[in-house]
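User: Let's play a game. I give you a shape written as C-alpha cells, and you guess the letters that built it. Ready? Here's round one.
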C-alpha cells in the first residue's frame, strides 16, 4: 500500500498536481478503491513494459553504433580475423547470421570465432551482421549491423602487361626460360621482364648466354642492362654474346690449353709460384675478354651515333671444367650481380665475385665504363677456385638478389642460401616449387612460374641461372 501511495504521489507531482499534507487522508481512501488499484497496477505494468522495451531498443542501438574494425583483406590471399563476441561484450546476443560474406569467398567460423576464407573480389564490402538479443521474442525480426570489410585488390592485378614492340630494332623476348645439358651438368636459366617494364610495354634489359666450348670448358654469362640507359637492352645482349664469342674463337680455345698445363703442374707440385701462374693466366685471359667486350660496345656506339653510356650493362661470367681432380671455376664480375658456388653437401657458399655496392664498390659499375679497367681494383674482379665437387653454381641479377637476399651481407651466409633453395622447393607464399632434377619434364614451366613471385617494391627484370 505504501508503495502505491508513493507511486501516486510522484505521478501526480510530475503532472503538476502535488498533494498537500491536509489531503493525505483523502489519498489513503483514493488508493484503496479497487478501480483505482487496478488503474495503478496497469500504469505500473505499462511503465515497466515500456522501460523494458526501451532497454532492448537502447541495447540494439548500442550494438549497431558500436565501432567494430576488422583487418583488411587482399584478393586471392588466405584471410582470417578475430570476431569474438566476448571481447566485443556481446554476450547477450542469442542468435545471429551473416549476409554478404559468402559472396566474396568468406565465412564465419563459430569454433575459432574468426572470419576466414580467400577473398574473391575487392572493395569496401558492407557485410550484414543480423542478430537478436536476450529479451527479444523468437518471432521478432533480426536486427542488422553493417560491418565494413576492406578487401584490397591483388597488387599483381594493378600492373599492366603490355607486350614490347617487336618492330623495335633491338627487340628481345619479354620472357625466356631454358633448360639444357652443360658440361657434365645441366643449366636452368630464366630471364623475365620486370613489371615496371611490362607496365609501360618496354623491353627486357637483362640477358644471358651459355655454351659448351670445344675444349671441355663451359661458360655461363649474365648481364643486367642499366634502367637509365636507353639502349641497355642491346648492351646486355651484346655483352653476353661477345663473351661467348670470345671464348668460342679458335685462338681462345687453343690458348685455354695453357691452363691445363698450368693446372697439371700445380696439382703435381703445388707452390706459391704455380698458384701465381694460374692466377695470372685467369687475370690475363678473362681480362682480355672483358676489355674486348668493352671495345665492341664502343665500336657499336660509334657506328650507331650513340654514347657508350647508352649501352650501360653489368656483366658476370663463369667458366667451369671438370678434371680428374675436380672442377676448375674461373669468373669475372662488374656490377651488382652475384656469382655463388654451393659445395656438395650445401654446408658452405663460395662467392666468386664482389659486388659494386656499398663502401667497397662505391656504387654500381658497368662494363661500358673505361675507368674500371684503369682501377687498381680491376685485378680483384676475377675469381679462381679448384673444387673437388659442387652442388650448385648460381648466378643472378639484382631482380633476384634484392628481394631474396636484400643486402650484400646476406650473401656469405649459408643459411640464406639454404632458405633460397627451400624457396625454390616450394617454401614460398604461392607454394610454387621447382624440382631441380634433370629428368623433370616440367622443369621449365615450374621455374618460369617461380620467377613470377611477388615482392613488394621489387619490379626489376629478373635473371637467374642455376648449374646443377
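Assistant: Ready! My guess for every position:
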Amino acid at each position: 500500500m505504501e508503495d502505491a501511495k508513493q507511486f501516486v504521489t510522484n505521478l501526480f507531482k510530475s503532472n503538476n498536481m502535488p498533494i498537500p499534507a491536509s489531503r493525505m487522508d483523502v489519498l489513503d481512501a483514493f488508493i484503496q478503491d479497487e478501480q483505482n488499484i487496478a488503474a495503478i497496477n496497469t500504469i505500473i505494468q505499462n511503465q515497466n513494459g515500456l522501460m523494458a522495451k526501451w532497454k532492448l531498443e537502447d541495447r540494439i542501438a548500442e550494438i549497431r553504433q558500436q565501432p567494430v574494425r576488422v583487418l583488411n583483406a587482399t584478393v586471392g590471399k588466405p584471410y582470417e580475423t578475430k570476431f569474438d563476441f566476448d571481447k566485443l561484450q556481446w554476450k547477450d546476443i542469442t542468435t545471429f547470421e551473416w549476409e554478404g560474406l559468402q559472396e566474396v569467398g568468406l565465412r564465419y567460423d563459430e569454433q575459432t570465432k574468426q572470419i576466414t576464407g580467400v577473398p574473391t573480389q575487392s572493395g569496401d564490402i558492407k557485410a550484414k551482421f543480423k542478430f537478436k538479443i536476450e529479451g527479444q521474442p523468437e518471432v521478432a525480426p533480426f536486427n542488422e549491423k553493417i560491418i565494413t570489410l576492406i578487401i584490397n585488390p591483388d597488387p599483381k592485378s594493378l600492373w599492366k602487361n603490355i607486350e614490347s614492340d617487336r618492330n623495335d630494332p633491338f627487340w628481345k623476348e619479354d620472357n625466356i626460360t631454358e633448360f639444357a645439358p652443360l658440361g657434365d651438368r645441366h643449366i636452368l636459366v630464366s630471364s623475365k621482364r620486370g613489371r615496371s617494364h611490362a607496365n609501360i610495354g618496354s623491353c627486357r634489359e637483362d640477358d644471358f648466354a651459355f655454351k659448351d666450348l670445344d675444349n671441355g670448358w663451359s661458360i655461363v654469362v649474365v648481364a643486367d642492362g642499366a634502367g637509365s640507359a636507353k639502349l641497355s637492352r642491346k648492351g646486355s645482349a651484346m655483352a653476353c654474346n661477345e663473351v661467348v664469342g670470345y671464348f668460342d674463337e679458335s685462338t681462345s680455345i687453343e690458348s685455354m690449353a695453357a691452363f691445363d698445363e698450368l693446372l697439371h703442374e700445380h696439382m703435381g707440385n703445388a707452390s706459391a709460384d704455380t698458384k701465381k701462374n694460374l692466377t695470372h693466366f685467369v687475370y690475363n685471359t678473362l681480362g682480355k675478354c672483358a676489355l674486348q667486350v668493352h671495345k665492341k660496345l664502343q665500336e657499336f656506339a660509334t657506328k650507331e651515333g650513340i654514347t657508350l653510356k647508352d649501352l650501360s650493362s653489368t656483366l658476370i661470367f663463369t667458366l667451369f671444367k671438370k678434371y680428374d681432380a675436380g672442377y676448375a671455376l674461373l669468373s669475372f664480375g662488374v656490377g651488382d650481380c652475384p656469382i655463388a658456388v654451393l659445395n656438395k653437401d650445401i654446408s658452405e657458399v663460395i662467392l666468386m665475385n664482389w659486388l659494386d655496392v656499398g663502401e667497397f664498390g662505391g656504387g654500381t659499375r658497368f662494363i661500358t665504363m673505361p675507368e674500371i679497367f684503369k682501377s687498381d681494383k680491376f685485378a680483384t674482379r676475377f675469381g679462381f677456385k679448384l673444387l673437388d665437387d659442387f652442388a650448385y653454381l648460381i648466378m643472378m641479377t639484382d631482380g633476384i638478389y634484392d628481394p631474396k637476399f636484400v643486402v650484400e651481407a646476406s650473401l656469405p651466409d649459408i643459411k640464406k642460401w639454404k632458405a633460397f633453395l627451400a624457396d625454390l622447393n616450394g617454401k614460398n607464399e604461392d607454394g610454387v616449387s621447382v624440382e631441380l632434377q634433370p629428368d623433370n619434364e616440367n622443369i621449365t614451366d615450374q621455374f618460369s612460374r617461380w620467377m613470377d613471385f611477388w615482392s613488394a617494391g621489387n619490379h626489376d627484370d629478373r635473371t637467374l641461372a642455376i648449374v646443377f
